[in-house]
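W.,

You were right to be curious about this one. When I first looked at the sequence I had no strong expectations either way, so I just let the prediction run and decided to look at it fresh. Below is the sequence, 325 residues in total, followed by the output.
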Amino acid sequence: MTIGFIIGGGVALEPPGLALYERYPQMRDWTDQVVRWSGLTLEQLYTEDLSVQLYGDDDAARPELRHVASARQAMLALGIADVLAEQGIRPSLLGGSSLGWMICACLAGAITREDLFAMLEFNSRQPMSPPGEPGLGVAVAIIGVDADLEWYCGPNRPGVHFASDVGGVFADGSYQMVMFSGRLDALRQLAAEAPQGQLNVISVLGGGHTPLQEYYAGAVRPYLATIPFQDPKVPVVSALAKGVAVTTAEGVRAEFAANLTTPAYLNHVKQSLAERGTELALLLGAGVPVPLFAWPYPTRGVSTPEEIEQAAAAVYDMGIELTFN
């Protein structure tokens, strides 16, 4: 029977607390390594609440916020994978969206952990909009499944692009969570015209997954060229192209680059894992609230010691063979 690991997009803004760190030696050893590589403190990684800065406009705080939040997300997901591996729970398939896809590629051995954390720090230092041009941001929205996306980001909305389906359709089939990206002024105008409270505009993380980030991709591509990518040991299904699994080093490099300017679809990941025989999916770390969304197979969120125990019980109950090596 096949286990798939999924890692959601976005970053970890709310503090995870120290429960994982205190409970598992693997998490402590891994965190110590992250501290050495990143220069971040245990407080920044585990207890500092970054969500209070989410809707601020402090330009000086943005690089540190992005660095801490992205490093925290990677640390949590990879550390939880280490704990699960110690219990014999390893994935046959991997898939994620945005930053989650890059973490999956790392978990598959396509990029070393040290190189991943160095890249996250490099990315955080890039400007969030082209010099002299309007600022970029994102807007997270909950809209009906039959909503007219062209009203939100069509030809009559210059400066607003569809960026991600986030978690896909809700379990009750009536709503979906999506993310738009683009110029902050255009996003704020859209939020003002949409039903009250439907869109939350975020300025401190920059834009993403649109052609407006080509300036950013231009800075990152030369950096990616210096990274010695390897063929992933486990297929990593794409969030950018439906039905595609990335299995080569150059495919991983290309996905890293395209990830900056191309919309990401967690639904592509869900369906690709299903088509490849996934019978249980574990969603590692912060990000997607699993019970909120519809899944084509049993799916469990794993971000606490209790959820690790529940995941292990689910693996046992389903008769999935454990792999110790």
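Here's what jumped out at me. The first strand starts at residue 2 and ends at 7. And, maybe more interesting for your project: The longest helix spans residues 62-86.

Coffee later to discuss?

I.
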